[in-house]
Amino acid sequence: MTQGRSFHVDPDDPRAPTQEIWDALTPAERLEVVAMLPNEVSIDEMAPEGDPHRKAKEGPLDALRRFFERIGRRVYLSSELAVYYPGEKRFVPDVLAVLDVDPHDRMKWMVPSEGKGLDFVLEVHVEGDKAKDHERNVALYARLGIPEYFIFDRGRLRLKAFRLRPGARSYDSIVPQAGRYASQVLGLDLVIEGERLRFFHGTAPLHDADDLIRKLDDMVDDLLKKREVAEQQREVAEQRREAAEQREAAEQQQRGTAEQQRDAAERRAADAERKLAEALAELERLRSR
Fold first, then answer.
1. What are phi and psi for residue 90, nearest 5 degrees?
2. Domain assignments of the chain as residue spans, ordered by start
3. Which of 23, 86, 244, 287 is the 20 to 30 Å CA partner of 64?
4. 255 — phi, psi (to 5°)?
5. Residue 146 reports pLDDT greater than 60
6. What does the pLDDT read at residue 3?
7. Cα–chain-centroid distance for residue 140?
8. What pLDDT score was predicted for residue 212?
9. Count of Cβ atoms closer than 10 Å to residue 271 Cβ
10. Where are the beta strands (DSSP E) in 105-216?
11. 3-state secondary structure (DSSP) of residue 82
């Protein structure tokens, strides 16, 4: 990069340049800075907490993505993405949302380059450093101007939520109404349902992939049962049809036998009439002689 305006990224503490330095860089230099900032995050930043932690993030993220795609709103959603604010230490939210931006895939969120900071952050706590989510992040995210911050304590099945008033640099707690925590940013309510964190749009829950799979499984089971019943009904109808055909065949046979007997009787009667007429004629002939 150009001498005098060069920017060095410390690999042990990677940070975006301050806004003042960023504004002084040329477009080409800015591209170099973005490229130098690492996408990978350390194990300490990720703080893996097993399947409960993973599932608690994946479900809400998938439900949000499906919802905003369905209503046609441009919202960028991601999980465990490196985020760089000007001059700040990099952090990695569990779930983040940025409204009204192009939702294309990214390797990092670099605020000076994107021109916008995060609008919503959800952190999931299972084990580990509780102070990080419940104390340090509360202060950090408020100072950075992130409008809303939610914490899902998966171990205790509790939800805490914070909102930033315009111009403020400290959060106000969001007071739940009937167990629901309203997100003004997303236009949704967050609720703990069983062991899950769920989003609601009005009275309708947002469904994630697991919900849809369960619904499809139930639908398949129902269709299989209906098919089995239909097959049984078809077999019964086939048996009845065959029985009716057998009865009809027997009746036709009986009708055929009766017709044969009637024809034979008519032939015998005609033959008797013919013979009687012949006998009478012969008798008359003899008498006339």
1. -60, 145
2. 19-206
3. 86
4. -65, -40
5. yes
6. 39
7. 33
8. 44
9. 10
10. 109-110, 120-125, 148-153, 158-163, 172-173, 181-183, 188-193, 196-201, 204-205
11. coil
Q: How far apart are CA 106 and CA 89, in angstroms?
A: 19
**19-206 CATH pick, 3.20.20.140, 1.20.58.220, 3.90.1570.20, 3.30.565.10:** 3.90.1570.20
Q: CA dist 196 to 93, 125, 128, 154, 156, Å?
A: 19, 13, 20, 8, 12
Q: How confident is the model at residue 44 (pLDDT cuts 50, 70, 90)?
A: low
Give the global pTM: 0.71
Mean pLDDT of the chain: 85
State residue 210's pLDDT score.
55
pLDDT of residue 285 exceeding 70: yes
Residue 207: its pLDDT value, please? 86
Tokens found for residue 121: 């952050």
The answer on pLDDT for 221 being more than 90 is no
SS3 for 77?
A: strand
140: helix, strand or coil: helix
| pLDDT bucket at 1, cuts 50 / 70 / 90 | very low
CA dist 211 and 40 (Å) reads 31
The SS3 call for residue 208 is: coil
Q: Is 270 left (phi over 0), alpha (psi -120 to 50) or beta?
A: alpha
Q: Which of 86, 76, 67, 137 is nearest to 107 (CA)?
A: 76
Counting Cα atoms < 13 Å in the Cβ hemisphere of 115 gives: 3
- How far is residue 176's CA from residue 180's CA, in Å, rounded to a whole number? 5
Radius of gyration of the chain (CA): 43
| pLDDT tens, residue by residue, 166-179 | 889 999 999 999 99
Cα–Cα dist 78/273, whole Å: 107
Pair 68, 41: CB distance under 8 Å? no
